[in-house]
Structures are given as structure tokens and as C-alpha cells.
Design brief:
The chain has two domains: 153 residues, Aspartate Aminotransferase, domain 1; 241 residues, Type I PLP-dependent aspartate aminotransferase-like (Major domain) (Aspartate Aminotransferase, domain 2). The protein is 36% helix and 18% strand. The strands form four sheets. The protein has a seven-stranded mixed sheet with strand order 4-12-11-10-7-5-6, with helices on both faces. Helix 2 runs antiparallel to helix 9 and helix 10 runs parallel beside helix 12. The longest helix is centred in the C-terminal third of the chain and has 23 residues. It starts with 23 loop residues before the first strand and ends in a 5-residue tail after the last helix.
Amino acid sequence: MSTASVSAASSVLLPTYARAPIALERGEGAWAITADGTRYLDFGAGIAVNSLGHAHPHLVEALTAQAQRIWHTSNLYTMPEGEKLARRLCEATFAERVFFTNSGAEANECAIKMARKYHAAKGHPERYRIVTFEGAFHGRTLATIAAGGQQKYIDGFGPKVDGFDQVPFDDETALKAAIGPETAALMIEPIQGEGGLRSVPVRVLKQLRELCDEHGLMLIFDEIQTGVGRTGKFFAYEHYGVAPDIMSIAKGIGGGFPMGACLATEAAASGMTLGTHGTTFGGNPLAMAVGNAVLDIILAPGFLDQVQKTALRLRQSLAQLKDHHPDVIEEIRGEGLMLGLKLKTLNTDFVAQARAAGLLVVAAGDDVVRLLPPLIIGESEVAEAVARLDKAAGAVGAELARPAAE
């Protein structure tokens, strides 16, 4: 029996995913391929993870070379490749300290702990609360679902972890009212991914920085989805001229290998002393080799300039697509190669129709379709993707126009 033929009823995996009925066996650049040779243009990239596409030769070489040396040592010993990657991240960002993790949720856990510890180390352990924003998604651990605040992720897991105060997405009055003597930090995604590709206005990000400076708070940016070239800059905060104190990253930094990191200024990280945090697998030699290989490509001269040019071409094509299908597509959202189609209907049928047309996309919320292609796509992939989106939109539009059965 092939992998694709295993039904949900016969699987022994926890039924926590509504998996599409295809199994991807291999990949080439922006294309994902099943065992029977069916090719899909991958504009999901593992939910913004495969930043350099599938089987990028430089990443494959780095991983296999490291695998022939040593896989794991634990953080009981010095890791030269980790030191190298951390220094490169600091040199290219606001950061002065780095802690490596295995995932975005773990990076956010580190960011949360770091913000709380900063205040505790200064004699204010009562300052532990973090203000977050409605529509956010910060991970699936007990702390990060509380930070995200979405009830559908919290229900059934007991009392919500204390210490998080959600405010509306763009409500200055509510934000200021939420800041009190127990507040430690403000935490936000510059562009909400799961929340529907909603970009935070520049004035709001600047205001958050000002409020943090005024009240002595830590500003945390969750750049797990927006980072590592996804928006056309190395990190999205560069678009706005607003730097955080702490930043969580993951997804694209590993190019498909599981890894994340928490970046911080020296001051923000000052409370994280010997023994205050740890990980068994975070920063392991395999992840560090791949992370350095990813940066070799992303930080190469001209690479991010090309991402911006490609993103502009894609956005212009999507605007034309919207004009062709006004009954289906309401709005184009996002930045760089993190784009979304805000639909006038639920996104489930659109995602299925796109897949039927040979294009993989990702749902966000109830009515947004995310387009998160590998950063290496060119003109031909953009044109092919738009043609397949056109086909999907046409099928959805025809269904919407069909009279309801009596």
C-alpha cells in the first residue's frame, strides 16, 4: 500500500490534521513531486519553511557533509558552527545574543522567559505579564496558545496560562489601558500569518517602541514566519525602522531542517545567566550546518534584491487576478513573498481547487489563502502560479454563481 493510499481511518497517527490526500515524495526547487510523478508548484513551502525550495544543492551538501562528521553533542560542549551562525545573525541584525531552539514555539518560549527574567533580575519579579494582540499565533505550547489568545486553540486544555493580556489589533486606547505595573513586554508579529496576512501599520510599531521605552518594557517581535528574507528584507522589522529588544525566528532559517532561535540585545538577555534555560537538541551540529548554508544564500549580494523584484511581479499579477475575479478575491495582502488572497468566501474550496490545478497554497483563518513560495522562484514560476490561481478562482467563482439547490 502506498503512503498516499493510507486513509485517515486506518492511520495510527493522532487525527489532529486534516491532511490533503497526496503524499509528496521528493522535490526540485519550487516543485514538489508525488511517488507517481505528479508535480505540484509549491507556493506553501511547508508553511514558509522551505525558503530555498526543495533539495537545494548547497543545503544538501552542507547537511550530508556534517552528517558524515558528527550529528549530536549536546550543549555540554562548544559548538563552533553554532558560534559562527550566532555571530552572523548578530552582525546582520540588531541582536547581540542568540539562543538556538528546535522550533518557533520554543523560540517564543525563550522570548517570554527572557522578558520575564529581565525584570526579575532587576528586582521586579511582579512584572511578568505580556500584552499580545488579537488574531496572533505564537505556537502550540500551553504558554504560546495563551499568548496567541485564540480560543479555538485554548479550549479543552484546562485553565489558560496566566500572564498574557490580549488587546485588539489596532486600538491605541486599549493598548495603553492594558499596560500596568505588572507588564513586562509587548509581543507582536509584524505581519500576522495565521491571523490572515494582516500587516501591522508602521505607526503602530513605532508606537509600541515608544511605549516600551517610556515604561521600561521589552518589545518582542515574533518573526518566525516573516523572517529570513520572506518579506524582501532579512527581517521584516527592517522595513519599518523599528528594532525590537527580543525576536523569535524559525521556519526559513533552517530551509526545511527543524530549527529556531531567540535573538536579543545584550541588555534584554542580561537575566539569562548560567542554568536559567536549556535545550537538548537546540543548536545541534546538523541544524547549525544547514543554518549557515541558508545564510550563505540569503545574505549573498543581490539575493534579497531579487526577492523584492520577484515579489513585485507576483503582487502586480495578483492585482490583475483580483480584477478578473472580483466576486472571489476581495483584497491582496502581505509583503514580499508573504502574500495573501482575502476571499469573499471560505478558503477551503479555493485551496482544494488550487491543488487540483497543481498548485499548493496554505489557508489562513477562514477566508484568506496564503502564498508563501520559495524565495528562489523566478518569472516562469510566477506566471505558472498565477495561471493556476486563475483556474482555481474560476472554479470557485462558478460554484458561487450556481443557484442554490431547492
